[in-house]
Amino acid sequence: MHRLSPTHGDVKASSRPLTTTLSERRRSVGFLGHGADSWACFLVTFQVTDVTWHGFFSFRPSYSEHRSDEVRTANIFVEASEAEIHEKARSLGRPLLQGLLDSALHTNGRADHGPTHLRGQFRTLLNANSREIAGEWTDGDLDVSRDQLERLRSLYESYRIDQVCHLVSLIDPEDFGHAIDLILEGERIDFRAKDRVQFARIVVDHIEALLPLPDFEAWARDFLSHPEAYRLYAHTLHREGRLP
Predict the structure, then answer these.
(1) Distance of alpha carbon 211 from alpha carbon 233, whole angstroms
(2) In sequence order, what E strands does 64-211 have?
(3) What is the per-residue pLDDT across 152-162, written as a single tens digit (0 to 9) for each?
(4) Within this chain, do residues 119 and 56 fall inside the same structural domain, yes or no?
(5) Is 45 inside a domain boundary?
(6) Do 137 and 103 belong together in one domain?
(7) Do 87 and 123 belong to one domain?
């Protein structure tokens, strides 16, 4: 029998820390949005007895690769087999999954604008800006023969933003928050406001000036010699939501 606990319409998130069991299995369900962030959704199942399987949903922000940053629901599936859990999970619509994410964030106190959230929103904004400048070139054929110089300059600008984004991802969230305060002299970035791009640009320019980035000519020569390496890097950072 399929059971959602406590009720099908009001599923509460678990306040327990994430744990991993030897029999735990994870299956990617897709991505959900929450504010300016994107969250990867996983169906997690594990066997309790020979005739009992449990399952829950776990959500990880796209700006993180660490399990410690995940939030999860309670064990909302109790079935006789793993296949039954997969079948029931597939029947859940996106609105319910969205509700589960919102509930998990609320229960775990992750819906605020703390240091981790600030760093995540900043990374999300940079990724979106990088894709807008370079276009969707990582999944298709790259043609730089037409308007080659202009195209290369766009890709170079995207590359520089990606380098800043990569560095931001490696900085401790609390340290990043302090750095933002220093760079903006106390001004706060409101990612819902129109000035977010302006403030983000100030931060990007400041961080970029500290990085030993190649000039355009050196980068272009290397890019044209190793385009697939750059394609894989951008695809991993933008599409897979993890560090290359």
Answers:
(1) 18
(2) 71-72, 77-79
(3) 888 888 888 88
(4) no
(5) yes
(6) no
(7) no
Is 55 inside any structural domain? yes
Angle at 224 between CA 219 and CA 226, to 5 degrees: 90
- Distance from C-alpha of 84 to C-alpha of 106, rounded to nearest angstrom: 29
- Asked if residue 150 and residue 76 are part of one domain, the reply reads no
Helix or strand (DSSP H, E) at 150: helix 148-170
| C-alpha pair distances (Å), 175 with each of 108, 115, 116, 171, 180 | 22, 8, 10, 7, 9
**What local confidence, expressed as pLDDT, does residue 16 receive?**
44
Under 8 Å between Cβ of 61 and 83: no
DSSP class per residue in 85-98: HHHHHHTS-HHHHH
**Spatial separation of the C-alpha atoms in residues 114 and 119, rounded to whole Å:** 9
Contacting residues for 29 by C-beta, under 8 A, at least 6 apart: 41, 42, 43, 57, 89, 97
Question: Number of structural domains, the chain?
Answer: 2
Look at the pTM and tell me if it is higher than 0.85.
no
Q: Is 231 left (phi over 0), alpha (psi -120 to 50) or beta?
A: alpha
Nearest to 132 by CA among 197, 192, 176, 180: 197
58, part of any domain: yes
Residues 126 and 225 grouped into a single domain: yes
| Cβ-proximal residues to 168 (8 Å cutoff; 6+ apart), any chain | 119, 122, 123, 126, 176, 207
